[in-house]
Design brief:
single chain; 119 residues; alpha+beta; NE0471 N-terminal domain-like; three-stranded antiparallel beta sheet; 6 strands
């Protein structure tokens, strides 16, 4: 792995935010809902392009547990039972740097599906 690596990972369960600081100085505050709907699992991403599954009703989801996966990733255990996504450092960094665009894409997909978020 040649990309940035986390120096600090903090779960703020009350605000439902995972805060990650990387060794290049970047700091991201990633909402649990955002991490859940962009899970790198096959259940969410499918097995190829165009097979992504839109996640509905994840507004109140929280992370129950974080487990290290080797020296390259973490597994997030969500309180809705989802725990199959392995979030590599590269994946987390990309989710952080692309957060605004990806969040808007998610909101657009929800709207197109006729779903209103219940915040």
């Amino acid at each position: 792995m040649s990309g940035p690596r986390p120096t600090e990972i903090n779960l703020h369960q009350k605000s439902k935010v995972l805060e990650i600081t990387f060794d290049d100085g970047k700091n991201f505050r990633l909402p649990c809902e955002y991490l859940r709907v962009y899970s790198p699992s096959a259940e969410v991403r499918g097995h190829g392009p165009g097979e992504e599954v839109l996640q509905l009703g994840k507004e109140q989801v929280n992370i129950e547990k974080i487990e290290p996966v080797g020296t390259y990733a973490i597994a997030l255990h969500f309180d809705d039972g989802h725990n199959t996504g392995i979030y590599s450092w590269d994946t987390l960094y990309q989710l952080g740097t692309r957060q605004d665009a990806l969040w808007q894409e998610y909101l657009d997909r929800l709207a197109k599906a006729g779903h209103k978020r219940k915040v």
